[in-house]
Amino acid sequence: MHPTIVSSPEKKIIGKRMTMSLADNKMADLWKSFGVRRKEISNAVSNDLISLVVYSGGYFEKFKPTNSFERWAAAEVSDLGTIPLDMDSYIVPGGLYAVFNYTGLNTDSSIFQYIFGTWLPASEYELDDRAHFEVLGERYKNNDPTSEEEIWIPVRLKKA
After folding, report:
1. Res. 128: pLDDT tops 90
2. Which architecture, in CATH terms, is 4-157?
3. What is the pLDDT of residue 107?
4. Which one in 7, 88, 97, 123 has a CA-CA gap of 20 to 30 Å to 153?
5. What's the 3-state SS for 1-60?
6. pTM of the predicted model as reported, rounded to 2 decimal places
7. Domain spans of the chain?
8. More confident residue, 11 or 106
9. β-pair partners for 133
Protein backbone atom coordinates (compact mmCIF):
# COMPACT_ATOMS: atom_id res chain seq x y z
CA MET A 1 0.00 0.00 0.00
CA HIS A 2 1.49 3.30 -1.10
CA PRO A 3 0.23 6.69 0.05
CA THR A 4 -0.31 9.86 -1.90
CA ILE A 5 1.87 12.69 -0.62
CA VAL A 6 -0.27 15.82 -0.27
CA SER A 7 0.66 19.39 0.61
CA SER A 8 -2.38 20.50 2.57
CA PRO A 9 -3.33 23.98 3.73
CA GLU A 10 -4.40 24.36 7.34
CA LYS A 11 -7.82 22.99 8.26
CA LYS A 12 -10.21 24.32 10.86
CA ILE A 13 -12.25 21.83 12.88
CA ILE A 14 -14.95 22.01 15.51
CA GLY A 15 -15.86 19.10 17.73
CA LYS A 16 -15.40 17.34 21.03
CA ARG A 17 -12.07 16.27 22.51
CA MET A 18 -10.95 13.92 25.22
CA THR A 19 -7.61 12.89 26.72
CA MET A 20 -7.03 9.14 26.61
CA SER A 21 -4.40 6.46 25.96
CA LEU A 22 -4.35 3.21 24.04
CA ALA A 23 -4.63 1.39 27.37
CA ASP A 24 -7.57 3.58 28.43
CA ASN A 25 -9.31 4.08 25.10
CA LYS A 26 -12.43 6.25 25.42
CA MET A 27 -13.00 6.74 21.70
CA ALA A 28 -16.49 5.19 21.71
CA ASP A 29 -17.59 7.57 24.47
CA LEU A 30 -16.12 10.53 22.60
CA TRP A 31 -17.89 9.68 19.34
CA LYS A 32 -21.16 8.98 21.12
CA SER A 33 -21.07 12.41 22.79
CA PHE A 34 -20.19 14.10 19.50
CA GLY A 35 -22.57 12.14 17.28
CA VAL A 36 -25.72 13.31 19.00
CA ARG A 37 -24.62 16.95 18.59
CA ARG A 38 -22.77 17.12 15.27
CA LYS A 39 -25.73 18.74 13.47
CA GLU A 40 -25.19 21.79 15.72
CA ILE A 41 -22.12 22.63 13.64
CA SER A 42 -23.65 25.02 11.10
CA ASN A 43 -20.64 25.73 8.90
CA ALA A 44 -19.24 22.27 8.10
CA VAL A 45 -17.57 22.14 4.68
CA SER A 46 -18.88 18.60 4.00
CA ASN A 47 -20.60 15.64 5.64
CA ASP A 48 -17.20 14.01 6.30
CA LEU A 49 -16.15 13.51 9.90
CA ILE A 50 -12.62 13.97 11.24
CA SER A 51 -11.03 11.69 13.82
CA LEU A 52 -7.94 13.63 14.92
CA VAL A 53 -5.15 12.88 17.38
CA VAL A 54 -2.74 15.38 18.92
CA TYR A 55 0.31 13.61 20.35
CA SER A 56 2.71 15.29 22.76
CA GLY A 57 6.34 15.69 21.71
CA GLY A 58 8.29 12.43 22.07
CA TYR A 59 5.13 10.29 22.13
CA PHE A 60 6.48 7.83 19.57
CA GLU A 61 10.11 7.85 20.75
CA LYS A 62 9.09 6.90 24.30
CA PHE A 63 6.02 4.87 23.33
CA LYS A 64 4.02 3.02 25.96
CA PRO A 65 0.32 2.06 25.70
CA THR A 66 -0.33 4.24 28.77
CA ASN A 67 1.01 7.44 27.14
CA SER A 68 -1.84 9.91 26.87
CA PHE A 69 -2.92 11.88 23.80
CA GLU A 70 -5.79 14.15 22.85
CA ARG A 71 -8.43 12.59 20.55
CA TRP A 72 -10.99 14.67 18.65
CA ALA A 73 -14.31 13.76 17.05
CA ALA A 74 -14.96 16.67 14.72
CA ALA A 75 -16.03 18.21 11.44
CA GLU A 76 -14.01 20.49 9.18
CA VAL A 77 -15.51 23.97 9.04
CA SER A 78 -15.18 27.08 6.88
CA ASP A 79 -14.50 29.35 9.86
CA LEU A 80 -14.41 29.35 13.66
CA GLY A 81 -16.99 32.12 14.11
CA THR A 82 -19.71 29.93 15.64
CA ILE A 83 -18.71 27.18 18.05
CA PRO A 84 -21.55 25.25 19.74
CA LEU A 85 -21.64 25.23 23.53
CA ASP A 86 -19.35 22.56 25.07
CA MET A 87 -17.45 22.06 21.81
CA ASP A 88 -13.96 23.27 20.96
CA SER A 89 -12.04 24.34 17.89
CA TYR A 90 -8.63 23.37 16.57
CA ILE A 91 -6.54 24.54 13.63
CA VAL A 92 -4.75 21.65 11.95
CA PRO A 93 -1.46 23.07 10.66
CA GLY A 94 -0.82 22.79 6.96
CA GLY A 95 2.09 20.81 5.55
CA LEU A 96 2.96 17.51 3.92
CA TYR A 97 0.85 14.46 4.66
CA ALA A 98 1.10 10.84 3.56
CA VAL A 99 -2.51 9.91 2.78
CA PHE A 100 -3.40 6.22 2.88
CA ASN A 101 -6.71 4.97 1.48
CA TYR A 102 -7.67 2.22 3.91
CA THR A 103 -10.39 -0.41 3.61
CA GLY A 104 -11.14 -2.56 6.65
CA LEU A 105 -12.19 -2.59 10.25
CA ASN A 106 -11.45 0.55 12.23
CA THR A 107 -10.30 -1.71 15.09
CA ASP A 108 -7.56 -3.37 12.98
CA SER A 109 -4.27 -1.74 14.00
CA SER A 110 -2.21 -3.57 11.36
CA ILE A 111 -2.47 -0.59 8.99
CA PHE A 112 -0.69 1.61 11.55
CA GLN A 113 1.92 -1.09 12.19
CA TYR A 114 2.57 -1.09 8.43
CA ILE A 115 2.69 2.72 8.18
CA PHE A 116 5.05 3.25 11.12
CA GLY A 117 6.99 -0.03 11.00
CA THR A 118 7.40 -0.64 7.26
CA TRP A 119 6.43 2.25 4.99
CA LEU A 120 7.81 5.22 6.96
CA PRO A 121 11.29 3.77 7.69
CA ALA A 122 11.71 2.75 4.02
CA SER A 123 10.45 6.07 2.64
CA GLU A 124 12.21 9.37 2.06
CA TYR A 125 10.02 10.87 4.80
CA GLU A 126 10.01 11.06 8.57
CA LEU A 127 7.19 11.77 10.98
CA ASP A 128 6.45 15.46 11.53
CA ASP A 129 5.22 16.80 14.87
CA ARG A 130 1.67 17.73 13.83
CA ALA A 131 -1.76 16.24 14.35
CA HIS A 132 -2.67 12.91 12.70
CA PHE A 133 -6.20 12.38 11.44
CA GLU A 134 -8.61 10.17 9.55
CA VAL A 135 -11.28 11.45 7.19
CA LEU A 136 -14.44 9.41 7.60
CA GLY A 137 -16.43 10.02 4.43
CA GLU A 138 -19.57 8.57 2.90
CA ARG A 139 -17.96 5.11 2.50
CA TYR A 140 -17.02 4.87 6.17
CA LYS A 141 -19.01 2.22 8.07
CA ASN A 142 -18.17 1.73 11.73
CA ASN A 143 -17.07 -1.84 12.56
CA ASP A 144 -17.50 -3.05 8.95
CA PRO A 145 -14.71 -4.84 7.03
CA THR A 146 -15.74 -2.99 3.83
CA SER A 147 -15.44 0.44 5.46
CA GLU A 148 -13.23 3.01 3.72
CA GLU A 149 -11.38 5.98 5.19
CA GLU A 150 -8.38 8.19 4.53
CA ILE A 151 -5.52 8.13 7.04
CA TRP A 152 -3.47 11.36 7.06
CA ILE A 153 0.02 11.07 8.59
CA PRO A 154 2.09 14.29 8.91
CA VAL A 155 5.49 13.89 7.27
CA ARG A 156 8.53 15.90 6.19
CA LEU A 157 11.52 14.98 4.06
CA LYS A 158 14.25 13.17 5.99
CA LYS A 159 17.17 15.34 6.93
CA ALA A 160 20.29 14.54 4.95
Report:
1. yes
2. Alpha-Beta Barrel (3.20)
3. 78
4. 88
5. CCCEEEEECCEEEEEEEEEEECCCCCHHHHHHHHHCCHHHCCCECCCCEEEEEECCCCCC
6. 0.93
7. 4-157
8. 11
9. 52, 152
